[in-house]
């Protein structure tokens, strides 16, 4: 077992379990909603709203903290975005998605059931 992915997974789990700002409290920068159909089998939609033009990264991680898929890694204009990740090849289990902008990072968890 690699220790770095385990530590990353534990940090993600602690971050997701800790109290956070609600989407209303962070809406001056962006809004990240819960993915539709959580738990889901095997498709979902991740929706976020950018209030200003900025660099955006949206990455899916497995329970061990390993990156599974990079959905977005680019400069995006302000606006509403809907991303439909493909989980047909992934195993059932707990996953995390991390939305990172130039000055904010937000992590949520999701559950795949097949």
Q: Averaged pLDDT, please?
A: 75
Q: How far from one another are the termini?
A: 26 Å
For the largest sheet, list the strands in their spatial order: 4-3-6-7
Say how many strands there are.
7
Separate helix tally: 1
What letter string, H or E per element, gives the SSE order?
A: HEEEEEEE
Based on secondary structure, the structural category is: mainly beta
Which strand-content bin applies to the residues?
Answer: 35-45%
Q: Provide the helix percentage.
A: 10-25%
Instruction: Report the principal-axis shape.
Output: elongated
Rg from Cα: 14 Å
Low-confidence stretches: 14-27
The largest sheet is:
4 strands, antiparallel
Helix-strand blueprint:
Blueprint lengths: L2 H15 L12 E3 L13 E5 L3 E8 L5 E10 L2 E5 L9 E8 L4 E8 L2
Antiparallel strand pairs: 1-2, 2-5, 3-4, 3-6, 6-7
Please give a structural write-up.
A hairpin with a 5-residue loop joins strand 3 and strand 4. The strands form two sheets. The protein has a four-stranded antiparallel beta sheet, covered by helices on one side. Strands 1-2-5 form a three-stranded antiparallel beta sheet, with no helix packed on it. With 114 residues, the chain is mainly beta. The protein is elongated. It is 13% helix and 41% strand. It has one helix and seven strands; from the N terminus they run H-E-E-E-E-E-E-E. The longest helix has 15 residues, at 3-17.
Briefly summarize what is shown.
13% of the residues lie in helices and 41% in strands. It is mainly β and 114 residues long. The two termini are 26 Å apart.
């Amino acid at each position: 077992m690699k220790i770095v992915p385990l530590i990353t997974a534990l940090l993600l789990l602690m971050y997701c379990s800790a109290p956070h700002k609600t989407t209303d409290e962070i809406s001056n920068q962006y809004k990240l909603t819960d993915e539709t159909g959580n738990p889901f089998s095997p498709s979902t939609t991740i929706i976020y709203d950018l209030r200003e033009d900025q660099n955006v990264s949206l990455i899916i991680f497995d329970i061990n903290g390993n990156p599974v898929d990079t959905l977005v890694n680019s400069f995006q204009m302000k606006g509403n975005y809907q991303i439909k990740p493909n989980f047909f090849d992934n195993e059932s289990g707990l996953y995390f998605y991390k939305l990172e902008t130039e000055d904010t990072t937000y992590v949520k968890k999701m559950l795949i059931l097949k």
